[in-house]
Amino acid sequence: MEYPSKLVEQAVEEISKLPGIGKKTALRLALHMLKQPQAQTTNLSEALTNLRQNIKYCGTCHIIADTEECTCKTLSRDTSVICVVEDTPDVLAIRNTGQYNGLFHVLGGRISPMDGIGPDNVKIDSLVDRVKSDAAVKEVVLALSSTMEGDTTAFYIAKMLRDTPVKVSTIARGIPVGGELEYTDEITLARSISTRTLFSTEN
Amino acid sequence: MEYPSKLVEQAVEEISKLPGIGKKTALRLALHMLKQPQAQTTNLSEALTNLRQNIKYCGTCHIIADTEECTCKTLSRDTSVICVVEDTPDVLAIRNTGQYNGLFHVLGGRISPMDGIGPDNVKIDSLVDRVKSDAAVKEVVLALSSTMEGDTTAFYIAKMLRDTPVKVSTIARGIPVGGELEYTDEITLARSISTRTLFSTEN
């Protein structure tokens, strides 16, 4: 496409590097900004630069934070459970359920030999150290994706924690709420039968 | 939603002000940037600020440009036709068809009394001046949306140009290419019959 201006072209080029945004959406966003007050674009630019330059990761749980000590220790959380997730959005999703009040550990990825990501590229050693050095930890909950890579990562972590006294659990795999039995794939159905739980009349 | 960091929250706040981007997409974009090299975010911020601060509008046709004299006059264009459009994306869309080689005039909006936009808020006076002062102009093509506001704007422009010798035409309204007659609404069908054209075996 031929752009009316070099400045527009550069902006479109940079915006369209973001995931899920093509050239056409990028152009729409750039032209939208031109119609808004200049302060809005300035604020956006500053917020992005600020985020990228000043963000910290908590030294303990590796969650994104404003300081190197995140709120994971200071809040009134259950310090006997650590939930292991792949990335920060997972932390937010689990927190939003309101069903979990323990600590977190963000791996920053999952073991994926195909992509050249081995156990050393994710924060597994740091998890093992954390579990071993903190006697308060009684359980590690693996909340990983139900994919080949997620399962590989889960197996590896479980193996590394075998010698410790902590209980290693995983979030349940089964039919999603609202899902019809008829349309559920065999593997999910088989897993949901083998890991069946006692029926509760409370929920 | 509770964010893990004030910086993330600010970035999400600013990104989600863009059209079509909600808080969830904004969060995904912000976290994506954290995984990319810092230069990418810096480039994006600079391109946006640069665009917003340094963009110019051509004094004649009001197209977005890098200087106040756009390429509208220098290129080998047909200077006897002016195509009137609402906004810059329309210029790009029409140029991309390869069917039009004349000049453009960007109104910067359309008359919409409901939104408080009157004839004085769009560049209609400037179009009339342009037509009157340039004897080379023989035709004005109205390429406006086929909506109430687009039609109102078209009528107003046609009225303003009534005393000039230029021909005022409008792009054809009818069944879109690929459209089925059966599913076309009555008004479009009626318009396509009343404005029927001679059948050509050439296209």
TrEMBL record, chains A, B:
Transmembrane regions listed in the UniProt entry: none
Chain ranges of the Toprim domain: 80-176
InterPro entries from the UniProt entry: DNA_Rcmb_RecR, Rcmb_RecR, TOPRIM_dom, TOPRIM_RecR
Key words, A-Z: DNA damage, DNA recombination, DNA repair, Metal-binding, Zinc, Zinc-finger
Domain of life, per lineage: Bacteria
The family this protein is said to belong to: Belongs to the RecR family.
Functional description taken from the UniProt entry: May play a role in DNA repair. It seems to be involved in an RecBC-independent recombinational process of DNA repair. It may act with RecF and RecO.
Protein name: Recombination protein RecR
Protein species of origin: Marinoscillum luteum
Name of the gene: recR
